[in-house]
């Protein structure tokens, strides 16, 4: 399962703003608290488009540019709305990456470094800015099946959230974090394990695009696919998922019960 169906992270929005300030030191010069609060609020709305953490930095800057004409460096920021971001992020991202001269790997490293520093300097504050979804802790503790975490987060952060918020320790070899490859490839690895032969396999995810990628792989036909409707997805995506036979749209209460 994806770790974002376990815990919601206000910390992510706060971290994204902090990392953006590190990457672009002058970006927030003269920006008032109301604008910063507005960006945090909008980040919760646009979060469903994010596949990998570094994209949050891009979103923070894009939102700020849309709000502040004097700092605009992107051709797409004028008149931009969150609705457009939700609909066209895959097209917007390469444009702003090029126009801002950014490098994906460098942003990933920066995002991880800033998060590491936050955890080291204020671990309690970072944990406190996250929250676990109701019922998930007990579901994980008493799960009758073997649970794997397949996430775009770096593994150590997923592990910290599980231990501190859910009170659960997942063995390191069952956490597939950033750098372990695309989720479809991880699912292929998992289903090939000898101990999984003949078992029913379930994959719970909150990104519809990821589930669509799984469906494209005939090798993964034996997986039961679920879209967690409490995670980072939109109503439109949930309606689209409901119309796809392979995908079950899952309620949080049903997820917790099924996992037990």
From TrEMBL:
It comes from the Eukaryota. One of its GO terms (cellular component) is lytic vacuole. One of its GO terms (molecular function) is SNARE binding. SUPFAM superfamilies: HAD-like. One of its GO terms (biological process) is SNARE complex assembly. InterPro entries: HAD-like_sf. Coiled coil: none annotated. This is Uncharacterized protein LOC106758101 isoform X2.
